[in-house]
Amino acid sequence: MSTDMASERLAVLSRQLCAGMASSPSTLTVPTSDMRLFLTHDNRELRDRVLDFLKDPIFRPDHYQSLLDFREQTLQRLKKVVGQKFFSVRDYVDNPRKFIASLESLMWADYSLAIKSGVHFTLCGGTIARLGTKYHHDKYLPSIDDLSTPGSYCMTELGHGSNVMGIETTAVYDKAAQCFIINTPNDEASKYWIGGTGQHGKVCVVFAQLTINGTWQGPHVFVVRIRDDSGAIMPGVRIQDQGPKMGLNGVDNGRVWFDNIRVPREDMLDAFSSVSPDGTYTSRINSVSARFGAVVSGLTTGRVLIAAGGVDGAKLALAVAIRYSVQRPQFGDKVIMEYVTQQNRLLPALAQTYAYHLAMGHLKSLMMDKKPADAKAIHILSSGLKAAATWSRVQVMQDCRECCGGMGFLAANKIGPMMNDMNVDVTFEGDNTVMMQQVTRALLDDGKTRLVPSTPTPGTLAAGGCGCAKTIAALLAYREATQLAQVADQMSQAAASAPGTAAAKAAARSQAFERNLDLVLEVGRANIERFCYENFVAETERAPAALKPSLELLANLYGIKCLQKGAAFYLGMGAMDRADVAALRTAAQAHYAMLCAGGLRSPAVALVDAFGIPDHLLQAPIAFDWRKI
Amino acid sequence: MSTDMASERLAVLSRQLCAGMASSPSTLTVPTSDMRLFLTHDNRELRDRVLDFLKDPIFRPDHYQSLLDFREQTLQRLKKVVGQKFFSVRDYVDNPRKFIASLESLMWADYSLAIKSGVHFTLCGGTIARLGTKYHHDKYLPSIDDLSTPGSYCMTELGHGSNVMGIETTAVYDKAAQCFIINTPNDEASKYWIGGTGQHGKVCVVFAQLTINGTWQGPHVFVVRIRDDSGAIMPGVRIQDQGPKMGLNGVDNGRVWFDNIRVPREDMLDAFSSVSPDGTYTSRINSVSARFGAVVSGLTTGRVLIAAGGVDGAKLALAVAIRYSVQRPQFGDKVIMEYVTQQNRLLPALAQTYAYHLAMGHLKSLMMDKKPADAKAIHILSSGLKAAATWSRVQVMQDCRECCGGMGFLAANKIGPMMNDMNVDVTFEGDNTVMMQQVTRALLDDGKTRLVPSTPTPGTLAAGGCGCAKTIAALLAYREATQLAQVADQMSQAAASAPGTAAAKAAARSQAFERNLDLVLEVGRANIERFCYENFVAETERAPAALKPSLELLANLYGIKCLQKGAAFYLGMGAMDRADVAALRTAAQAHYAMLCAGGLRSPAVALVDAFGIPDHLLQAPIAFDWRKI
Question: Which residues does UniProt mark as catalytic (chains A, B) (predicted)?
Answer without folding.
Answer: 429 (proton acceptor)
